Structures are given as structure tokens and as C-alpha cells.
Amino acid sequence: MATKVRRPSHAGSWYTDNPKQLSEELDGWLQSCGLAKSPEVRGVIAPHAGYSYSGRAAAYAFGNIDPSNITRVFLLGPSHHYYTPKCALSTATVYKTPIGDLPIDLEVIEELKATGKFELMDIRVDEAEHSMEMHLPYLAKVFEGYQVKIVPILVGAVSAENEAMYGQILAKYVDNPSNFFSISSDFCHWGSRFNYMHYDKKHGPIYKSIEALDKMGMDIIETGDPDSFKQYLLEYDNTICGRHPISVFLHMLRNSSTKIKIKFLRYEQSSQCKSNRDSSVSYASAAAKTDESSSS
């Protein structure tokens, strides 16, 4: 099959396109978070904003990865510009980053295509989307010197039934310990520019209210229950942009025979909102680990 490249379209704007600088920046963040790599970590939830905003927070997710037994990374990100009620697969054969290229696992793409449940995304849609791209340099860095392939899945505006359906399709991949899952999401987008200004005064300043709202969501995600997460979103409408990828992931974990628990390790906000004129985006990083204690 001919090579079809997805270019790093956000390099030079959302993060540096200078390979040496990018490599040093990522190394610095990974070292400063001081996390021990663990082979039990099978997935992460990490933000996807420009690296000056969320690069440091993301290290708390990617810093947990032990690359030695992983050969494939499923990458699930929300769609910001393109509307689809389905999940869409990449048509590229390789995703380029300034610090190394990540080949696409065409075999798994074919397997998923064969289910008839996925659409294919045009390369222009692929390159316009940043949610998965912002995970790529970190993956290229963590898997430096290892053979790893990626399976990018753009998660559209998927209904609750379909979140469950995609979770069931993908669950079997969780049972293979050489598969890893990188879930892309930012947390609360607060302010008039996001049409979201939920404020519970009992928490004090606005940014504390945002933190309480996000932490509530994070606690629910940690329970692993997609239905509770759905209820939380219905009730508070928190602007978690990767709500659909997170929900699909929760359904995957629920349907797999491997017991995996999600734990959040870092929470940050782009700025502290104190008045209605302010705005901020929250970033939360989590690791999903095999849970020996509750294995059936």
C-alpha cells in the first residue's frame, strides 16, 4: 500500500516544530513529574491544548508508561471541527511528528472497518483535528527506540447507545496486554466564550467552583461507571470536550475481562477565574492501571 502521510499540522503553532527543542521540552516535563514507569499502566487520559498550556500536565499521564511490552496504541480523540454521529478511522498510513514518525496499524484498521460501524475520515479532517495530534509527540518520545503502531480513532458526537456499542467492539483489545490506550480530553471550558458559566458560590471564588465541578467528574470517571458519568454530564453539562472518548473508554473497561482502574494524578487550570469576564480551560491527567486486587 502506498504511504499516506498525516502531517503534523499544528507543529510550529501549538507546539514547537524544532525537533531538538521539542525533545528537550518533553524530556524536561517527563522528568519533573517524577513518576515511576509501570507495566501495569494500560492507558491514559491526557489533555490536548497547546503545550504552553497543558504540556506539563500531560506529562503526569505519559510519564507512567512503560514502553517495553507495548506494541500498539489506540488513540481516541474528540472531533472539534467535523460533525459525525459515529467514530471515524484514519486513512493515513503514518502520522508524522517533528521527533519521529508513528506508523498506523493497518491490520487493526481493517478489522475495525470490517465491523461496518466506523466511517473513514478524510485526510483534511484528520490534519485539521488537534485532539489526537497533541498526544503524538509525547507518544513518539515515550516509545523512542521501540516498535509501536497506532490506531487513531476520531470519536464523533456519539449517542449513549453507540458509546456502549463502540466500547463493546473495542473491549477485546483491552484484554491484550500489548495494547495501550491514549484518551484525549480537556476538562471544564469556563467563560462566556465557551457559553458555560456554572458557578456554585459555596466553593468561594469561581476557579474553586470549577475545580469542585471537575473533581466531581474525575471521581465519577474513577469509579469506572459510564452511566454515572452520563448522569453527571446531563446534570451539570460540564464542558469536558473528550466526554465521548472517555465514555467509550469506560465502556471498553466495563466489557473487558481485565480489571483496570483509572486514577487521576494531576489537575491544572489555564488561569484562575475570579470574575465573569475571565475564562479558563482545565486539564486533568489520569493513568489506567490493571487492578490485581479485584481480579475475578
Notes on the protein architecture:
Strands 2, 3, 4, 7, 8, 9, 10, 11 and 12 form a 9-stranded mixed β-sheet that branches. 35% of the residues lie in helices and 21% in strands. It has one domain (36-290): LigB-like (Protocatechuate 4,5-dioxygenase, Chain B, 3-Layer(aba) Sandwich). Helix 6 crosses helix 9 (243-255) and helix 8 runs antiparallel to helix 9 (243-255). It is globular. With 296 residues, the protein is of the alpha/beta class. It has helices at residues 19-32, 51-62, 106-113, 123-128, 136-142, 160-174, 206-223, 226-236, 243-255, and strands at residues 5-6, 41-46, 72-78, 87-90, 94-95, 102-103, 118-121, 149-155, 179-184, 189-190, 260-269, 280-290. 47% of the residues are buried. Strand 5 and strand 6 form a beta hairpin.
Oligomer: single chain
User: Beta fraction of the residues?
Assistant: 15-25%
How many domains? 1
CATH topology: Protocatechuate 4,5-dioxygenase, Chain B
Radius of gyration: 18 Å
General shape? globular
CATH superfamily: LigB-like
- What is the CATH architecture term? 3-Layer(aba) Sandwich
Family: Belongs to the MEMO1 family.
Protein name: MEMO1 family protein
Region (Disordered): 272-296
Pfam families: Memo
Quick overview:
InterPro entries: MEMO1_fam. The chain is built from nine helices and twelve strands.
